[in-house]
Amino acid sequence: MHFDEKETLRSDKNPAFDYCEARYWLAYKGNRIVGRVAGILNKAYIEKWKARHIRFGWLDFEEDERIAKALVEKVEEWGRSLGMEAVHGPLGFTDLDHEGMLVEGFDQTGTLATSYNHPYYPKFLEKAGYSKHTDWVEYRINLPEKMDEKLEKMAAIVQKRLQLNVVRFRKAKELLPYAPAIFDLINTAYADLYGVVPLTEKQVKYYTKQYFSFMRPDFVSLVTDKEGKVAAFSITMPSLSEALQKAGGKLFPFGVFHLLKAMKKG
User: Fold this and answer.
1) Over 90: is that where the pLDDT of 110 sits?
2) How does pLDDT run across 186-202, given as a tens digit for each residue?
3) Mutual orientation of helices 201-211 and 179-189 as an angle, nearest 10°?
4) Residue 71: its pLDDT value, please?
5) Can you give the residue ranges of every domain in the chain?
6) Band (83; pLDDT cuts 50, 70, 90)
7) Is 14-127 in CATH node 3.40.630?
8) 115 near 106, Cβ under 8 Å?
């Protein structure tokens, strides 16, 4: 949604600016905007990974390799002025922002959590001197109508042996007390993934307000250990892709109805 994007890019709204700096550029042909890019200096990343890398994100451009080259060159110039040694992206301020560049699966509809780009994007970036550093893979899993009995028995044995408890929720507000522990678990589980930096307490509050308000509580599963601490969680959602396309990035006047209708599916 437009307001979410704007808040993410504003230093007075996004708590990631406590340890990040950013610069934004637009490319023009005459009076028409034909491209955009964000350059991000993530100081927490540099400190954790001991790598003097600057990030680029929010990269979009018309089908002209000169536009792509001009945009990333602006990020490179800014990075050099800061003493950085390399550029990588597309990355956000945190790993809860849209990241990565689509290199296959262009015939598939993107999800709320991922970016879509045309096939010429990676080609033009390669011509500008960039190469793929890592693969992020998204899977589609077809669920059976009935769970395998062996898996159910195995789950029951593990649950009993480790004294695990599956917590279910009826109302969204019942989730809120678990939010800090859920984000602590994210920080721990994702710590060694590519480019990840831990979320701060301020960011946890920000994302709790942003995401927990529209979760379907009956679609959230949480597992606690024998001490009552959060050990695992699962958040699932109906697809919002079609609803977001119909909304056109705006909640009003009709976008909110498309989203509410999509959220009721499941």
Assistant:
1) no
2) 999 999 999 999 999 99
3) 120
4) 98
5) 14-127, 149-235, 238-266
6) very high
7) yes
8) no
